[in-house]
C-alpha cells in the first residue's frame, strides 16, 4: 500500500519538468496523507489540478451524507476488471506528483517507517486515475488514486506492493484520452529495482500532523 508520500520539488521545477502552461502556488509537503488535497496532472502540457487523495467513483453513494475516504490505491492487475476503476482507467488517467513515498516494516516488534525514492531523480510521477464525485451537498469533488504493482528487489522487504512510476517519455501517452491496451501495458512498468533507494526515518511519520524536512532525514 502507498498511503503516504512527499513532494518537495519547487514550482519552477514542476512547471519545467511537466511542460506546464502556467505555474501554481504550493508549499513543499513531506507527509502527504489520504483525504488531503494534492496536485495532479490530467492533461499533457496543460496545468496542475488539485485533487482529494482517495478515489471515489462518480456513481458512489453516501448514505450518511459524508464524503467517503475512498480508495488510495488501485491494483494494476485488476484495473480493467473492477467497475470501481475501469472507466477511469480507460478515460481519466493522471500523473500524481511526488518526490518519494513511505512504507512501514516491522522490526523488533515495532513499525519502522522508510522513505523510498528514485536515486538522483528529485521529481517523479505516480501512475494515477481520477474521477469527479458529486457530494450530497452538490459539490463536485475531484478524487484520485495511485496505481500499484508487485514490489521487486530489496523493496519487497518493506512491502509487497509499490506505486508505479511513469517514465517522462511516457507522460503524454499516459495522459492521452485514447485507451490502447498494448501501449498502456508497456507504460505500466517500473524502473529497475536498483534504481530505488530507501532509508529509515523518524517514527513520528506515523502521525499525519508531523510535517517538514525532518520527515525524510535518515536516522
List its salient traits.
hypothetical protein yedk fold, mainly beta, 5-stranded antiparallel β-sheet, globular, 4 helices, 34% strand, single chain, 5-stranded mixed barrel, 219 residues, 12 strands
Arithmetic mean pLDDT? 94
Annotated CATH architecture = Alpha-Beta Complex
Number of strand elements: 12
Briefly note the CATH topology name. Answer: hypothetical protein yedk fold
Query: Span between N and C termini?
Result: 23 Å
- The CATH superfamily is identified as SOS response associated peptidase-like
Derived from helix and strand composition plus strand pairing, the structural class reads mainly beta
Sheet with the most strands?
5 strands, antiparallel
CATH class: Alpha Beta
Q: Helical amount among residues, as a percent range? A: 10-25%
Radius of gyration: 17 Å
Q: Strand fraction band?
A: 25-35%
Strand adjacency order, main sheet: 2-1-7-8-12
Order of helices and strands: EHEEEEHEEEEEEHHE
Ranges with pLDDT <50 over ≥5 residues? Answer: none
Task: Set out the fold topology.
Elements: E1 5-7, H1 11-17, E2 29-32, E3 37-41, E4 48-53, E5 73-75, H2 83-91, E6 93-98, E7 100-107, E8 110-118, E9 124-134, E10 140-150, E11 161-163, H3 171-175, H4 181-187, E12 196-200
Parallel strand pairs: 4-10, 5-10
Antiparallel strand pairs: 1-2, 1-7, 3-4, 3-6, 6-9, 7-8, 8-12, 9-10, 10-11
The gist of it:
With 219 residues, this protein is mostly beta strands.
Give a structural overview:
The protein is mostly beta strands and 219 residues long. The chain has a single domain, classed as Alpha-Beta Complex (hypothetical protein yedk fold). It is built from four helices and twelve strands. It has helices spanning 11-17, 83-91, 171-175, 181-187, and strands at 5-7, 29-32, 37-41, 48-53, 73-75, 93-98, 100-107, 110-118, 124-134, 140-150, 161-163, 196-200. The chain has a five-stranded antiparallel beta sheet with strand order 2-1-7-8-12, with no helix packed on it. The protein is globular. The two termini are 23 Å apart. The mean pLDDT is 94.
